[in-house]
Design the sequence.
């Protein structure tokens, strides 16, 4: 797992939990439904991470950790968003995990997963931030926040 040189400034407890989340969540997404995954996240939400880094540092760490991995750990928008969703919710941040679909120029169905904070795409790369509005949301977690676009 690749990590950045600034990892030493990130508290050890958070790094251990982030390593575990990065190792467990991607293959877990292959085994359980997103509704079940969300229940697990909300259950873990009760045991808060203390001294979590800021959200942008967390996102950079997750991006670095997932880059270059193979199998169920290969970096996809869903895996990235799911790991960040877990870590940020456990740090007490109010974020939602969204999954949407749209048709590309050739008419093929394209899916994307992203985080929302206050109904605004959160921690998305600049290039995809404006594209997100073209997706029809088919799932939003936590389920209590579900809305249709």
Sequence:
């Amino acid at each position: 797992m690749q990590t950045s040189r600034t990892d030493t400034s990130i508290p050890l407890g958070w790094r251990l939990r982030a390593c575990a989340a990065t190792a467990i969540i991607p293959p877990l997404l292959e085994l359980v439904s997103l509704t079940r995954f969300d229940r697990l996240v909300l259950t873990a939400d009760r045991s808060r991470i203390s001294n979590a880094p800021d959200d942008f540092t967390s996102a950079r760490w997750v991006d670095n950790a997932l880059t270059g991995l193979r199998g169920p750990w290969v970096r996809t928008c869903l895996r990235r968003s799911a790991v960040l969703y877990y870590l940020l919710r456990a740090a007490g941040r109010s974020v939602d995990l969204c999954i949407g679909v749209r048709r590309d120029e050739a008419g093929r169905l394209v899916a994307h997963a992203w985080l929302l904070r206050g109904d605004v795409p959160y921690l998305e790369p600049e290039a995809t931030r404006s594209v997100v509005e073209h997706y029809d949301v088919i799932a939003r977690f936590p389920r209590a926040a579900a809305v249709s676009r």
